[in-house]
């Protein structure tokens, strides 16, 4: 059973420089909501940004992770 | 792959995407969505007065499987405009709130105005082609 902390850690490990905030939406361990900020998103379309995150989980999306709602933001290079 | 032409479901999906300017693959129907994410996406399209074709992916698990292979997108719903994947519920909602979706759909409707094949809002029945 995935949990929010594991999902956060996996996103941050897979996308260099990413910061993820993950909530278990329902408390049931299968509907998650994540906001991911990463410099790696710069210049990519939303589709491409979301795909980067979905790709980390592969078949788990729609399986053990019933839903992963995403908001992705390119990090500001300050 | 060479088997693409021998795969009636994949072919039906590809044709549906090509033939409908705005098409939503969803769980359930616009009248009776079977998932909150599908319901929300239908709501956004209706809020913009969009005419769209809808495909219920639930009757046959192969529809979803083939769709995700084509789109490289794992979740349902999936909205296509002008043959391109726009996104799922999150992206559609975000683009609705920012006004980008109205812009995209407005531009698409104009481009398709002379096209008699424009989506008429009817529900496609891909599963009927399976036998």
Would you summarize the structure shown here?
The complex is a heterodimer of chains A (78) and B (131). Chain A is α+β, with helices and mostly antiparallel strands and 78 residues long.
Main traits of this protein?
heterodimer, A: 78 residues, alpha+beta, GMP Synthetase, Chain A, domain 3, three-stranded mixed sheet, 2 helices, 29% helix, 28% strand, globular, B: 131 residues, alpha/beta, Glutaredoxin, five-stranded mixed sheet, 5 strands, 15% strand, disordered C terminus
Task: Report what the structure shows.
- Chain A is α+β, with helices and mostly antiparallel strands.
- Chain A has a single domain, classed as BolA-like (GMP Synthetase, Chain A, domain 3, 2-Layer Sandwich).
- Chain A has two helices and three strands; from the N terminus they run αββαβ.
- The model of chain A has no long low-confidence stretch (mean pLDDT 92).
- Chain B has one domain: 3-Layer(aba) Sandwich (Glutaredoxin), CATH 3.40.30.
- A five-stranded mixed sheet of chain B has the order 4-3-1-2-5.
- The radius of gyration of chain B is 14 Å and the shape is globular.
- Chain B starts with 7 loop residues before the first helix and ends in a 7-residue tail after the last strand.
- Chains A and B meet through helix 2 and strand 3 of A and strand 4 and helix 4 of B.
């Amino acid at each position: 059973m995935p949990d929010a902390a594991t999902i956060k850690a996996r996103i941050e490990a897979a996308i260099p420089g990413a910061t993820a905030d993950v909530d278990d939406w329902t408390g049931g361990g299968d509907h998650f909501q994540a906001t991911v900020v990463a410099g790696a998103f710069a210049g990519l379309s939303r589709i491409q940004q979301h795909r980067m995150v979905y790709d980390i989980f592969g078949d788990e999306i729609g399986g053990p992770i019933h839903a992963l709602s995403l908001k992705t933001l390119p990090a500001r290079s300050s | 792959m060479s088997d693409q032409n021998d795969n009636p479901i994949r072919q039906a999906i590809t044709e549906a995407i090509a033939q409908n300017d705005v098409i939503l693959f969803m769980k359930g129907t616009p009248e009776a969505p079977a998932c909150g994410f599908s319901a929300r996406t239908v709501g956004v399209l209706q809020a913009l007065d969009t005419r769209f074709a809808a495909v219920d992916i639930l009757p046959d698990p192969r529809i979803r499987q083939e769709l995700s292979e084509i789109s490289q997108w794992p979740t349902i719903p999936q909205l296509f405009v002008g043959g391109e994947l726009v996104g799922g519920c999150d992206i559609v909602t975000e683009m609705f709130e920012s006004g980008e979706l109205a812009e995209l759909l407005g531009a698409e409707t104009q481009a398709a105005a002379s096209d008699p094949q424009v989506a008429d809002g009817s529900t496609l029945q891909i599963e009927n082609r399976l036998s």
